[in-house]
Structures are given as structure tokens and as C-alpha cells.
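Before drawing any conclusions, I needed to go through one protein's amino acid sequence and its C-alpha cells, quoted below without any editing.
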Amino acid sequence: MLSIQQKAKILAKAGQSVPASPVDADASAIAAWTKDVENLYVAYVAARAAKSLRDAEDARQLDMLRRLSAHSAYA
């Protein structure tokens, strides 16, 4: 399982706007930051998964069209 700091680093490397980590803050500020980063990370992972599914479906459809085209060329 990734730590919240690792998730923040991943988001930052991906170009996401990540709120600055609270330094010497109270527990509620740290909890709020953790929740914000966690929500951003969940959205980021969901978006990547959706893109992966779309790409896989596009590849499947392209393969099917190629097979149909090759089959009809021999008919």
C-alpha cells in the first residue's frame, strides 16, 4: 500500500496540482490534507483505468475491422 506522501509524489509527477503538505500543523489540518490527496489519487487512478479500458476497446475494434477486411478481400 502506498503512503500518502508517495501518492502525492505520483500525482505531482503526473502533472496534477497537489496541495502543499502541512508542516507543523495540527491533526485536523493533516487529516484534511490527507483526505484531499487521497481523493485526488482515487480520481487519478480511476481516470487512468478508464483510459486503459477505452484503449483496449479501441484496439479490439480495430483488430475486428482488420480481420473483417482481410476476410472480405479473400471472398
Q: What stands out?
A: Residues 68 and 74 are 10 Å apart (CA to CA). DSSP finds two helices and no strands in the chain.
